[in-house]
Amino acid sequence: MAYRNKTYVAFDGDKDIRYYYLMKAWRDRDNDSFNFHDAHDLNTSRDTSQEQSIKANLRQRFANSKAFILLVGESTRYLTKFVKWEVEQAIRLDLPIIVVNLNGKRSMDESRCPPTAKTALAMHVSFNQSIIRYALDNWPDSHKKHRGQQHTGPYYYKGNVYQQLGL
Prior knowledge:
The chain has 167 residues and is of the alpha/beta class. 40% of the residues lie in helices and 16% in strands. The radius of gyration is 15 Å and the shape is globular.
């Protein structure tokens, strides 16, 4: 069994990759304060044209992941080939899911959130380094507690958490 210390990040690779790159820049600049281990740094599929090959590679990334971040942009809800599959894998593997709204919304964005993530036990936050770091530090333990109580659905941090983080 693989050692799970990575964070799997899913996103619209055509439209929202800049946000993923920004997260990597935060990590590289502030290694102590935003230290996520990116599952995308692992193996790269040789044949990226084949869905089967891509999903096999993604399964390896999931095997090393302890948390799942979904970056939700304007068209993420329409991506059914990979994003839907990735969310389903995160649910199946019982990974703590953090849904990050790229439009700044601090709770679930009904109009943008993919259907598979709407009912999942997940923390919904805005796109900001401080709140994403806070969620990565705190949501996994809360997720475990809520899962044990058979809870599902969206969660979000109240305004006082954002205020404490200076947001």
